Amino acid sequence: MCAEHFLRMQWRRINHLRTQEKLIVSGDRVVCACSGGKDSTTLMHVLARICDRKDLSLQVLSIDEGIRGYRPFELKQARKHAKILGLEHTILSFKEEFGQTLDQIVRTNKDNPPCSYCGVLRRYLLNKGAKALGATKLAVGHNADDEAQSVLMNALRGDVIHMARLGPKHEVPDFAGFVPRIKLFRNIPEREVAAMSILMGLNISFHQDCPYAGTAFRQIVREHLNELETQSTGVKFKLLKFLDELSPILRSSLKQGRPELCNKCGEPTSGEKCKLCEILADIAR
C-alpha cells in the first residue's frame, strides 16, 4: 500500500471499532493515558483528531513511575506532543502518591518481579487521575499484539476472570469509581502503529524498552508469540477472534452485579483486600 491508502485503512479500522463498540460517544470527556512511547503518543494525535468537536473533550495523563534513565525521556516526549496539540497534560508520580519510586521499591523488594508492582500501582494512578480530571473514558494505547499477548498469558495462567475483562472496552458494572478503559488500536498490529506514526509525520522518537521488561512474563509470551506468527501468519488475530467469541460466554457465566469492594480502600476486588492494598502493605515493611 501507498501511505495514503495505508493510513486510510487504519482510520477505517479505528472508526469501525469506535462506532461498533461505542468507545467514544457524544458528551464524552476523554483522557488519553500517554507514557510517551510510540503507541500512546500516536494515540494522542488520533484522539486529538477524533475529539476535535464541541461535544467532546480531550486531556492527557501520564504516570511517572520513577525509572531512572527511561521514564524522563518518555515523559519529555509526552509533554512535547501534548503542547503541540494544545492539550492539558497532567503527570502523577509514584514518589508523590506512594512515597517511593519504582526503582526504590525494586531495590527493597526483590522477591517479586518489578512489573507485578508497577502494573497495579500504575493502573490505580491512571484511574485516580482520570476520575480527578472528570473523565468518562480512559483511552490506552494497547495494540493487537498487546491484546493477543494478554489472551495467551491469561490462558496459560488459567485466569478466567482477567480473560473476561479483555476487549476493546473494560468497565466495572455498578461501580462509579472506575473509569471505563478503551483501546482504539486494539485491532492494529504494533508494527502498523509504528508505521502510522511515521507516515503521519509525528516525529516520535523510538526509545529503548523499559529496563525491567526483560523480567516480565509478558516478555516471554511476546517472544514466543512473535515466533509463532512468523511460522503461521495470522496467529495473533486468531487469538483476538478466539477472545471475541469466548468473552460473551465468560461474562454471562461469571458473577454479575455490583463487585466486591476492598474492606480497606473501597476499590473493586475479588477478595477481602485488593491487590493495591496488598502491595502497599508489602512495600511498607
Label the CATH architecture.
3-Layer(aba) Sandwich
Number of strands: 6
* Number of helices, where a helix is a run of at least 4 consecutive DSSP H or I residues: 12
CATH homolog superfamily: HUPs
Helix content: 40-55%
**Beta-strand percentage?**
5-15%
Q: Return residue spans where pLDDT drops below 50 for at least 5 consecutive residues.
A: none
Could you tell me how far the N terminus lies from the C terminus, measured between alpha carbons in angstroms?
56 Å
Estimate nothing, just give the exact number of structural domains: 1
Radius of gyration: 19 Å
Describe the structure.
With 285 residues, this protein is α/β, with parallel strands linked by helices. It has one domain: Rossmann fold, CATH 3.40.50.620. It contains twelve helices and six strands. It has helices spanning 3-20, 38-50, 71-85, 94-98, 102-108, 114-132, 144-157, 160-165, 190-199, 217-231, 235-253, 275-284; strands spanning 29-33, 57-64, 89-93, 137-139, 169-170, 181-182. A six-stranded mixed β-sheet has the order 3-2-1-4-6-5, with helices on both faces. Strand 2 (57-64), helix 3 (71-85) and strand 3 form a beta-alpha-beta unit. The longest helix is centred in the middle third of the chain and has 19 residues, at 114-132. The radius of gyration is 19 Å and the shape is globular.
